[in-house]
Amino acid sequence: MKNLILVLVTFTSLGSFACENLLNEEMRLLDSTVKENLCKYEGKVMLVVNVASKCGYTGQYQGLQSLYERFKDQEFVVIGVPSRDFFSQEFSDESQIAEFCETNFDVSFPMYSTVPVKGKNAHPFYKWAKKNHGIGAIPKWNFHKIVIGKNGKIVDTFASFTKPTSKKFLN
After folding, report:
1. Rounded CA separation 83/91 (Å)
2. 82 by DSSP, 3-state: which?
3. CA 86 to chain centre
4. Cβ atoms within 10 A of the Cβ of 69, count?
5. Pairing label, strands 26-28, 145-148
6. 35 neighbors 27 (Cβ within 8 angstroms)
7. 27-47 as b/e, with b when 16 or more CB fall inside 10 Å?
8. 151: which strand partners?
9. Does the active-site annotation cover 39?
10. Catalytic residue among 19, 39, 55, 101, which?
11. Which of 3, 107, 101 is nearest to 65 (CA)?
């Protein structure tokens, strides 16, 4: 399995992707009315993770923050996408999500609004991921990870149980 370090190095030399075909979707920032087009991450390696505050994997926020701090200056970004798709393990109030992440994990990577990540109501990003990478891109639980290279293609996906600091992820 490709590792994050290899992904960062491999895609550093590639040109950027045609954003209109990939991330030309707006997402609202967490606990805000501000919307951002995901094209702002064009040319970066992205780790997109559906997150939840009341999940057994919630401690992975710490590893995600560590990765972000370690690689953010190397054209890498972690993107957190809260979801209530799995037994409503996320707060329904986004201000509670933001406070939880800041207070418990000092999260500074971009966090977006709570959206569905699976099924017919999934956010367009997740529909695109399924269409272009298959069922491996569909989150089966919270903290499913999708790695997108600088070329705009999904490089790999990781199940919830794969910690962002695990050798499987980094080697």
Report:
1. 9
2. strand
3. 16
4. 13
5. unpaired
6. yes
7. beebbeeeeeebbebbbbbbb
8. none
9. no
10. 55
11. 107
Amino acid identity, residue 136? G
Which pLDDT does position 25 carry in this prediction?
Answer: 79
Parallel/antiparallel/unpaired status of strands 154-158 and 26-28: unpaired
Strand 76-82 to strand 45-51: parallel, antiparallel, or no bridges (unpaired)? parallel
Tens digits of pLDDT across the chain (171 residues) = 445 444 443 443 344 455 655 567 789 999 999 999 888 998 899 999 999 999 999 999 999 999 999 999 999 999 999 999 999 999 999 999 999 999 999 999 999 999 999 999 999 999 999 998 999 999 999 999 999 988 888 999 999 999 999 887 676
Q: What is the C-alpha separation between 171 and 165, in angstroms, rounded? A: 10
**What pLDDT is attached to residue 168?**
76
Global pTM reads: 0.88
Looking up tokens 């201000």 gives 95
Residue ranges of alpha helices (H) inside 77-153 are 94-105, 124-133
Q: What is the pLDDT of residue 51?
A: 98
162 vs 61, 115, 125, 132, 158, CA distance in Å? Answer: 13, 22, 22, 22, 6
- What residue has token string 């190095």? 9
